[in-house]
Design a protein that fits this description.
The structure holds two protein chains of two kinds. By secondary structure, chain A is an alpha/beta fold. Chain A has twelve helices and 13 strands. The chains are: A alpha/beta, B alpha/beta. Strand 7 of chain A pairs parallel with strand 2 of chain B.
Chain lengths: ~350, ~250
Amino acid sequence: MDGNSAIGEAAIRAGCQCYFGYPITPQNELIEYMAVHLSRRKGCSFVQAESELSAISMVHGASLAGVRTMTSSSSPGISLMQEGISYLAACGLPAVIVNMSRGGPGLGSISAAQSDYFQSTRGGGHGDYRTIVLGPSSVQELADLTHRGFDLADKYQIPVIILGDGMLGQMKEPVEFKHEAPKELPVRSLALRGAKGRPSRFIKTLTSEPIELEEINWSLFRRYQLIKKGETTYDTFLLDDARLIVVAFGIAARIAKGAIKNARGEGLKVGMLRPTTLWPFPSEKIQELAQKTKNFLVFEMNMGQMIEDVQLALEGNGEVSFYGRPGGVIPTPSEVFRVISRLWYQKGLK
Amino acid sequence: MKKVYTRPRSLKRVPFHYCPGCGHSIIHRLIAEVIDEMNIQDKVIGIPPPGCAVFAYYYLDVDMAESAHGRGAAVATGLKRAYPEGLVFTYQGDGDLAAIGTAEIIHTANRGERITVIFVNNAVYGMTGGQMAPTTLLGQKTTTTPQGRDLKIEGYPLKISEMLALAKGAVYIERTAVNSPTNIRKTKKAIHKALQTQIDDLGFSLVEILAPCPINWKMTPLESWQWIEKEMMKEFPLGVIKDTTSKEDAD
């Protein structure tokens, strides 16, 4: 199954009732999958919106009604959605937003890239907020993290971004779906469905008093601290005896894995840390690793974005090198291997 | 003694904050009266706009949720799709609906979304201090058309309701005003019919209401009522713009 369709199937099995989207390459398989499979389900709705602005606003509406809802797009479309994501964050409304990112800036290219890391992990829209950002690196993980995304969105009442890329979306791999779609879907307790048997209520973001908004910001911050504490996840590869640690996420980690296997074949003790939550970022794990080795290589398909999180985590307590390929260029494992091996010998590692 | 006038149940016991002579408080009250008469207080979900009327949730005693500027119709679409049993209305101004939210309102109407739109046209941006709106009349002075709206520079007032009437999904569109007791009564009737259109699952419904903004028009409340009658109605004539609710096949 292709990655985009796997997200669609996983979303339906997670109980997603409403999907709103707008076509953009390279995520069209996902909107098409939902058009075929979601719109037929009882109590479910699919709308091809007139723009990404509208799509995210429809997600806003469906989330108000208390159902699981999602949208998907790719980089330029995600930029348009930032307005709505800021409102979702402000209102504390759960939703899943999939970004099968492509090369930028501007219209860019339709090839896989990781240049939306900053936009995703720093909130992205206006205001002081964060979203949970998940970084899958296989079709199986796209499915698993889609399911986890819906759970996290509900648990913390927060928008969740799944940051994939054009390659993950298009490639086909075996995938196992671990859940059956629920028959009865629970309605969120804070849903707006008319004031039946309870006083009316409203959900707003505008505040006239700065002190009131400050408290809202504090309450968001406290929620973010809980998420950092409880939900930071990562994957490791051959780290036990590693003298050089590659840090990479998503499809870049997949490429790096091939390169590390080659390096191991040559006797170079290289391992990898792969964050699977990009926000919250596994800073503590990086600090722990820095106690054993100071040598880090960050590999990203951009000009260097996640590297800032690695440097922040290390607080100068490590040497961070970088290899980046922006614009939708997809380097091969052997290219990354050449970078690793050059670095290994330059540093005189043994 | 028979009680002939009282606060509607669906209106909270809170004094309005709106400027003297503003149309919003009249329109809020009309909506509350209609909700009471139709006995739908527990089914209604309203989407107020960014703008003066954003505080509608402080007055209307029904479930409400704010949307981003211009996105009311899209938020209402998502809500109604997720919960078709609800009765969803948006409350939008001319800047919200006819400028920044033009795409949303046209496509919502065209899809025939089962929502009701209360479109308040006061020919200016009220909350931001009286800038030109898409519906500002030719020659009308605003803070961004200090010499008066010039068709060569700013173009013509936008007749969005007439445009929306072209969409087959829109089944009921009427333009009313709140500048006289007669027109206020007609406005109430139109709001009633628009919500009934939604209850009957017929399609998209909209009531455009010409409303006074005396502060930004720099008029007294009485002058503003007269200005609606003499000037606004020339550009935006009152009446039913479209009604295909009795036809089986819309349009």
